[in-house]
Specification:
about 140 residues; mainly beta
Length: about 140
């Protein structure tokens, strides 16, 4: 299960005010989406349930790929408003690409299923049948 927890790099966990984004201008031209999206993973006994927040996305903008034991969720939102041509002074709507990858050590890759409702992508990740661990004591001769 711990393999479903992604590595996260925090630039400055001690003092968030030294983060470059904190000093960004109010009317900055930064238009790209954050590089990531939030994910929750729960152990449901026979499967893991992964829920990813992807608000505002359409189903055809989300891609889920499994390649050699790695699950990758990617999403791309294009700027459909052409902001420069419409004289926006401030636009907080976002666009760009996001991608997250997870290692599937304990997951049966062939039976993964997904559904997308109300901005939340839900992946059902069935656990691989693991041989039951038996314990025994070895007698010393």
């Amino acid at each position: 299960m711990s393999s479903l927890i992604p590595y996260r790099y925090t630039r400055n966990a001690i003092d968030p005010f030294f983060n470059d984004d904190f000093f960004r201008s109010f009317f900055s031209q930064g238009r790209e989406m954050s590089q990531s999206f939030r994910v929750d993973v729960r152990d449901e006994g026979d499967h893991f349930l992964m829920e990813a927040e992807l608000p505002g996305m359409k189903r055809d903008q989300i891609h889920i790929d499994v390649d050699d034991g790695t699950l990758t969720i990617s999403a791309e939102m294009k700027d459909e408003n052409q902001r420069e041509e419409n004289n926006y002074v401030l636009s907080e709507r976002r666009y760009g690409q996001m991608k997250r990858s997870f290692t599937l050590d304990q997951v049966d890759e062939e039976h993964i299923s997904a559904e997308y409702t109300d901005g939340v992508l839900k992946l059902t990740l069935p656990k691989r049948n693991q041989p039951e661990i038996t314990r025994r004591r070895i007698e010393i001769q």
